[in-house]
Amino acid sequence: MYTDSTPPGEGTSGTESYREVQESPEFGELRHAYRSFAFPLTVAFITWYLLYVLLSNYAGGFMGTKVLGNLNIAFVFGIAQFLSTFLIAWWYSRHAATKLDPRAEAIKTRLEGDAS
Amino acid sequence: MSPSIQSIQLAAEGAGEHRPLIITLFSLFVVATLAITVWAGRQTKGTEDFYAGGRQFSGFQNGLAISGDYMSAASFLGIAGAIAIAGYDGFLYSIGFLVAWLVALLLVAEPLRNSGRFTMGDVLAYRMRQRPVRTAAGTSTIVVSIFYLLAQMAGAGALVSLLLGITSETGKILIVVLVGIVMILYVSIGGMKGTTWVQMVKAVLLIAGTLLITFLVLWKFHFNVSELLGAAAEKSGKGAAFLEPGLKYGATATSKIDFISLGIALVLGTAGLPHILIRFYTVPTAQAARKSVNWAIGIIGTFYLMTIALGFGAAALLDPDTITTSNKAGNTAAPLLAQEIGGGADSTGGAILLATISAVAFATILAVVAGLTLASSSSFAHDLYVNVIRKGQATEKEEVRAARWATVFIGAAAIVLGAFARGLNVAGLVALAFAVAASANLPTILYSLFWKRFTTRGALWSIYGGLVSSVVLVLFSPVVSGKETSMFPGVDFHWFPLENPGLISIPLGFLLGWLGTVVSKEEPDAGKYAELEVRSLTGTGAH
């Protein structure tokens, strides 16, 4: 099946209206809702991961402190990286479903509706 | 060298008894997956079927397939083995491999699904001059995939020979040829649809096999992780140090910096791996792409948590000598553990578990090499052949034919290179693939999607700059020469001290993308950027 009815450059609404959409307040809100969530969060989890890498490298004594039985801080820290990854994935998806999808859908419907 | 050769032969003799069972299980997998491939091939007619599997997979299905594509022999056997030998430091790998998925989820998966069609090049070339950028994107896709493919082929040859007890050189080459032929059949006949199903089947088998061994290991230690860790630390002969960071990377100031370099390459590499990126095109919408990454994070995360039990279980239940003499890097620790936990070398239970885990390892290798071959042949056909050589003037039928032939040629090249690469340092090749992906692909993807001013020159500088710098740095690193473990241990022309180039080449890729943009006179195409931005965020006009 070739559903390639919209090759780049000949979008449903023409280049001009893509620029209008890009400058519209609705799209501005969508972009802001996406970027203000995804960008700082990316910086945060990469910093959190690098902290873990650096502590493993240069704070061996601290990381080796036993917490519970044979479980030490390094191990707990490692498991925490797993948990934070699961948590961030869930958090982003919830944000996307409530804050991004409805806005994106509204713009898409309007744009594709215009064309037909 | 001689003690290890001797014990490999010993292990080989042991494996000889289980050979019929291993071969039977493996043949079953190959026959079943080839049947699926033929079925998928009948439904593969146009480019959208061949490259994107018809875009009809669900988020869950694609999540499984992504996991099957990502969990390579390196992560299954390699991480379990690294933990079994180096303890805690082996575990560090899996964290980088997992956290990396957040970059894909938050920044890449959805915009890519919304604005591209078949390849990474579709998105990179969207606002740029098509031919130069597609050439660059195609080149880096093929380089990354071939390095990754070589690592898998080299690993497959060594591993399969060991598990099947094949010691002759001809036998090992035959294994590489066999793996290569099955992989070419999967991809050239079944396209993306066939490859996706193979990867899903493999993911289920791998998870089931790992779950079983994990359960048995934990059962043996009364489901007490602390007890398991304690037993591993004691048996390893290294005591508490086995559970702390530093055994592998803590030796010198250089090895510590090397670890940082590796960590950065792992976390930024995943979202630039072409064989992962093209999987996002197999689902109908961006929401489904998001769902598939979420499933993948869940499945891959659970799997890596289980490799902790596998690795420390192997350390706790096997003699350290048994692990390292069977394979220096510990790659056979997981199968050996399966044998031990099933009742030992002479028991039926041990034989069955060893055969099962070995067959799962074969399946793993096959599914991953198929994904890699598909990524490189798609990019060759779609980016280089159709859009650069034919200037976009090929019919759909010609394009699919080109993609099938590209599969055969790339597969054949991989067989030849794989046969030569058997002795190469597998870990170095995988780390190189991640470093190239993070240095050449990720900066260009992020700039293209999010930076209005980005130009063709910026794209070319960051792709070629990242690509060339990472490859050159590895060429003059201890991975290639100057050390006992190098590819060419006899000579020494290394001047770059780190094994992983990421620390230098990734910032360089970002810097060159910025610099190329700032110095170019070309006005960025504002209309095209508007189109890309609106489409990537809203899904308007998505294929």
From TrEMBL, chain A:
Q: Which UniProt keywords apply?
A: Membrane, Transmembrane, Transmembrane helix
Q: Which residues cross the membrane?
A: 37-55, 67-92
Any keyword Transmembrane? yes
**Which Pfam families does the record associate with it?**
DUF485
Is the keyword Membrane in the record? yes
Which stretches of sequence are listed as region Disordered?
1-23
By what name is this protein known?
DUF485 domain-containing protein
In which organism is this protein found? Streptomyces pathocidini
TrEMBL record, chain B:
Give the lineage: Bacteria, Bacillati, Actinomycetota, Actinomycetes, Kitasatosporales
Mind telling me which residue stretches traverse the membrane in this protein? Answer: 20-41, 62-85, 91-112, 133-151, 171-189, 201-219, 259-281, 293-318, 352-381, 402-421, 427-449, 461-481, 501-519
CDD domains per the UniProt record, alphabetical: SLC5sbd_u4
Kindly give the Pfam families that the UniProt entry links to this protein.
SSF
Instruction: Quote the InterPro entries the UniProt record gives.
Output: Na/Glc_symporter_sf, Na/solute_symporter, Sodium:Solute_Symporter
- What subcellular locations does the record give? Cell membrane
The residues forming a coiled coil are none
Where does this protein come from, organism-wise? Streptomyces pathocidini
Q: How would you describe this protein's topology in the membrane?
A: Multi-pass membrane protein
- Give the highest taxon in the source lineage: Bacteria
Q: Which PROSITE patterns match?
A: NA_SOLUT_SYMP_3 (PS50283)
Arranged from A to Z, the UniProt key words for this protein are: Cell membrane, Membrane, Symport, Transmembrane, Transmembrane helix, Transport
- Tell me its family: Belongs to the sodium:solute symporter (SSF) (TC 2.A.21) family.
Name of the featured protein:
Cation acetate symporter
